[in-house]
Amino acid sequence: xxxxxxxxxxxxxxxxxxxxxxxxxxxxxxxxxxxxxxxxxxxxxxxxxxxxxxxxxxxxxxxxxxxxxxxxxxxxxxxxxxxxxxxxxxxxxxxxxxxxxxxxxxxxxxxxxxxxxxxxxxxxxxxxxxxxxxxxx
Length: 137
What we know:
By secondary structure, the protein is α+β, with helices and mostly antiparallel strands. 23% of the residues lie in helices and 23% in strands. It has a five-stranded antiparallel β-sheet.
């Protein structure tokens, strides 16, 4: 399922949905994974958690969906459910997120960005379409 882009709060994501946010006038996308009760997990900038700019050091953090979205347009994008993967179970997703507790992953725009993290948690595969513009084979 992929919803239309919106800036409203009318979408109703469910556990495990990939939340895609348009940043910097659409130049790149930020990704988070919906956990329920308006909570998402996503990479945040360790040096400046409120910054929406690229970070060298990141950590995985739970935050409020609407604080994370801010004024960005956003959508639910589970498009890879159709093409490649079965979404993981709640237990699998939670376990994958737990792998990142208390560690600070090395951020890399091409090799380890927020989209890699979200796809790993939902599908068990690390990849980023915006970094490579292709899915893993």
